[in-house]
Amino acid sequence: MVSKIKKADPEAAQVLVSALDTQEVTRGVLPPVDVDSRMNLLREERSVVLEFEPLWPTDIRKQLELVLAERRNALKLIGAGLQPIKTAMFKGPPGVGKTMAARWLARELNLPLLTLDLASVMSSLLGKTGSNLKATIDYGSSFPCVLLLDEFDAVAKRRDDDRDVGELKRLVTVLLQAFDQWPSSSLLVAATNHPELLDPAVWRRFDVQLDFAAPAIDEISALLRHEGLSDSFVSRIAPLLAGASYADIRRKLLSARKVGLLQDLPFEQVLLEQNASKPQSLRAEEVRRLRQAGMSQRKIADSLGISHPTVNRILKSLEKGNYGYQEPSA
Q1: Which of 102, 315, 96, 299 is CA-nearest to residue 188?
Q2: What domains can you pick out in the chain, each with its CATH number?
Q3: Residue-wise over 186-210: b if at least 16 C-beta within 10 A, else e?
Q4: 60-81: per-residue pLDDT in tens?
Q5: What is the pLDDT of residue 187?
Q6: pTM of the prediction?
C-alpha cells in the first residue's frame, strides 16, 4: 500500500510507515493443527536461545548479515518503495548449519521461529496435505516471524517426476501461490539437502540462496580454537576431522569431553585417539572431496596426514567406478 500511494501522496505514505513502526501486532489466527489427529503442524519458539554461538564461513556470514540488514531496515526500504528480503533458500548436506542459521536469524531479529513439522503436515488423506501446508503458511504470514520449511524437497518436488502422485504435484502450486503472497513483515526460510529434487519454478521465488557446505580445514581449525584448543594441537587434529560437518565435529568434541571426564583422561588425548583411525570409506570420501576442490595429491596427503601413494591408490580406486568419481579435467 505504501508503494502504491507514495508518488501520489508522500505524506500519507509516511504516516503509514510510522504506524507500522509503532503498531502492536496481535495474532488473529490460531496455531494450525491437523483436523484428524489434532497434532500441531508447527513447532514454535517464542524466544530463540542458542546452545552455542555459531561460527560462519566468510561468504555465509556476509549473506546472513545482508538478510539481517534488510530485515532490520524493512520500514526504510518500504518507505522508498522497495521490498526487503522476504524469502531465503538454504541448501547443503545435513549438519552444515542450515537450521542453525534460521534459528540465529530469528534470535538476531527478535522474532519467534516457526518450524514446519513435515511428519504432521504430510497427511495420507488425499487433499489434506495441501490444506495442512496452506494453513501453516497462512499462520506464519499473519504476524511477524521467521517461518522455517525444513526438508523442503519433500513438499516442493519437480512436477515432471512421474514417480510422485498428483497430490504431491499440487503441493508445488500451493507453495508458489503462497510465496507470491508472502508479506514483507515476515521472513520465510526453506532448507533442503537435495536441491536437485526441487521444481524449477520454485527457485525464482527466493530473494536469496545460500550454499552451505562442510567446513574446510581452516574453518575446522577456527572452530577448534574457539573451543579452547591450542594451535599446536589444532594443527594435528583438524586434518583428521576433514570432511565432517559442523554438527559431527561438535558431537565428537562432546563425546571426547565425556569420555575424558569419566575415565580421568586428558580431553585432547581422547579426541586424538577417537579420530586417529578412520574407516576406509570415510577417508576415501575426504580424498574425493579435496580432489574435486582442485587440491593436488601432495596437498591432500599433507592435509589428511596420509602418504602420497595412499592418496594415489584411493583416487585410482574411485576413478574405476566407486562412488561415481571422475578425475577433474585440467
Answers
A1: 102
A2: 2-209 (3.40.50.300), 217-324 (no CATH)
A3: bbbbbbbbebeebbeebeebbbbeb
A4: 999 999 999 999 998 888 888 8
A5: 95
A6: 0.72
